[in-house]
Design goal:
The protein contains eight helices and six strands. It is globular and about 45 Å long.
Length: about 240
């Protein structure tokens, strides 16, 4: 398929994959891909920036943090191959946004309906902690992606890092944000407008093992996020 026949957001994500802007992240993602985790020694790691994934005509945008070293950095698809992804796609499946409840690898036939999953940082960072300059270097990818996903009306933000990063992107695009800026919290809501469209933000605790293992985020709590998103889209 030629670029001319692809949705611009898909073409953009193909460009993301070749990015080498952050030396520390490039070195880390490639080192992890070479050394591998013992359980995945027989697999070929992706080891590159991870593009967004989903339905280019989506009305729902899902924003995480960054690829996991042995999750998306291994599989090449956002929230795929790790426990966070197990939680995310199972919940999205229950809410009707995903064709199946599991996401194990790029060729597993998972398809998203009316949803697009992305992150403010596209490379796996050491200790899952991007530096501010790495976040800023990656911000243009998210900004351009959001502009191309013209039908997005609801954004579910997974975690405080993604919440802050996404608000920075909107500010950079000239959106008139409230002062003080909307605070993150589980099921936090904010109605925003800019560039001729309205956007509803919904906050959720990140489905990391730190949150799900401790009960900070339960399945019931997570389902409420997606029910809220569905109601905002269809109400």
């Amino acid at each position: 398929m030629s670029h001319e026949s692809k949705h611009p957001a898909v073409v953009l994500q193909e460009q993301v994959v070749s990015c080498r802007a952050c030396p520390r992240l490039v070195a880390w993602r490639e080192t992890v891909a070479e050394e591998k985790r013992a359980a995945f020694q027989d697999e070929e790691y992706w080891g590159r920036p991870v593009p967004g994934f989903g339905d280019p005509d989506a009305r729902l945008l899902v924003v995480g943090l960054a690829p996991a070293a042995h999750g998306a950095n291994r599989t090449g698809r956002m929230f795929t191959g790790d426990r966070s992804g197990d939680w995310l796609y199972a919940a999205m499946h229950r809410a009707g946004f995903a064709s199946q409840p599991t996401s194990e690898h790029r060729g597993d036939d998972l398809a998203l309906s009316d949803a697009w999953v992305t992150a403010p940082v596209r490379c796996a960072p050491p200790k899952n902690r991007p530096k501010p300059r790495e976040r800023d270097a990656c911000a243009d990818w998210l900004s351009r992606e959001f502009a191309l996903l013209e039908r997005v009306r609801v954004a579910v933000i997974l975690g405080g890092y993604g919440w802050t990063a996404f608000l920075r992107v909107l500010h950079g695009r000239g959106w008139d944000l409230p002062r003080p800026r909307p605070s993150f919290g589980h099921l936090a809501r904010s109605s925003l407008a800019g560039e001729g469209r309205a956007l509803e933000l919904v906050g959720s605790y990140h489905p990391s093992q730190q949150n799900t293992f401790t009960g900070t985020l339960t399945e019931e709590m997570f389902d409420e996020v997606w029910t809220t998103a569905r109601e905002l889209l269809d109400g």
